Amino acid sequence: MKISALQKARAAYQPKLPKALQGAVKIAEGAPTKSVDNQEEIKKLFPNTYGMPLIEFIPGEEVNNKKINIGVILSGGQAPGGHNVISGLFDAVKKLNSENRLYGFLMGPGGLVDHNYIEITADFIDQYRNTGGFDMIGSGRTKLEKEDQFEKGLQIIRELNISAVVIIGGDDSNTNACVLAEYYAAKKYGVQVIGCPKTIDGDLKNDQIETSFGFDTATKTYSELIGNIERDCNSARKYWHFVKLMGRSASHIALECALQTQPNICLISEEIEAKDMTLNEVVENIAEAVAYRAAQGNNFGVVLIPEGLIEFIPAIGRLIQELNDLLAAHGTDYKDLDKEAQHKYILAHLSKENAATFETLPEGVARQLSLDRDPHGNVQVSLIETEKLLSEMVAAKLEQWAKEGKFKGNFSAQHHFFGYEGRCAAPSNFDADYCYALGTSAAQLVANGKTGYMAIVKNTTAKTDEWRAGGVPITMMMNMERRNGEIKPVIRKALVELDGKPFKSFVAKRDGWAKNTEYIYSGPIQYWGPTEVCDQPTKTLILEQE
Ligand code: FBP
Q1: What ipTM did this prediction achieve?
Q2: Ligand 1 centroid to residue 439 C-alpha, Å
């Protein structure tokens, strides 16, 4: 494989580990835990994996470790650092016993069910150290939830003499990891299941998980691009740039990029929902900022839009809820109809209020909302062109204001969607170290016989040496929620907290950013150089840990 000069130099980077993971390790167990909500229901559903203690790794004595084989799966969307989780896992299992073997299941959880795998060897893994992407073994969104999938997985697990499976994924994938752990424990199969917190979206975090890996690199990559656009925009002074940012439902990515780049406007879906704003009010707010800047002679600006916005506008959110239930219940009758018949079918089955909202939506948006969900039941928000929808509505509003003499200026828009551009970037130093430590922790959880745990690394705004590694029972992060028309146990998704420091810090400055031009050009991720340039965590993490 031909590699770039940067990749070559970066391959030599040795990720730093927390002190407790540098040598032999033993575990310190905390008190029994309970789920964040719905304790009785979760306990009933997970009798074998509920209530386990939190775990911290502390330095221990070398012992003779018995031979183990482990399987690893990358699940869901790519996130920078996934290869380093596998490198950390590989190095740690080989250190525990050089005869240990690591198998990678190919193209996501489907690889386990369909028995597609490779053995990960030293030469093979060396090509992927500190690289972005999930191409080492591929990823996929197959949902592991049915007993026959678990049993089919068991066949290959037995054949390869695997005693543990590590699933690297987001909230949905880790929920499924927990269901699988419980199933194998209930059946006394002796197969452990361990999760790792992945997603650029930053929505898999809570009291135990400080951040999901990939958020750091993805937001730095998007911020570089936003900064470049801000500079172009401030040079030509003739466009308003509408930038949609990936991140699914939560607005963590948009908020972090706003803190890094200080755009004129950044919408936060959670705030729009809390204030019960209509689409028209959101549009009016943007148009007011455009008109204010135009009056100062500034016919330019940058607007950041979280990709999940549409779901958070209350009327549209209610419509999506009903559509989710409708598609879950009648998906099969509906699937084979043509476009027009599908539209009619939906209108005929929706409640009056939601049908009225559905009819006000532009055709493209309505179509996306009524199309297939992903295997976890999520609307595929990255396919909805919210940036165009908003800029068109702002243009219409300004035209109306111009006729009424309230707007004298020019409004010309450019559109961008930053999503896939950031998911496979070479991991920042933070993600490279964090992921390597997560992989090492996962190996230690396996070696210590644990199942139903997620690997965690804490104190991540301190120096790497001082990071603390361990494991959290996945059931501890669960509650009951409505998904695909059913109430299910799931890991609670973290949305932007409106009383949290990152949001408050943004609110304190955003009026100034809207009126003035206070852009910050953060530039590309740096891997070598002064620590304040190369090793800074995200602003979100710093503010949350203050
Ligand atoms: P995960 O939750 O699986 O980490 O996915 C992250 C993500 O990048 C979202 O931000 C985005 O909405 C989605 O994946 C896009 O999915 P796909 O890659 O299937 O188009």
Answers
A1: 0.97
A2: 22
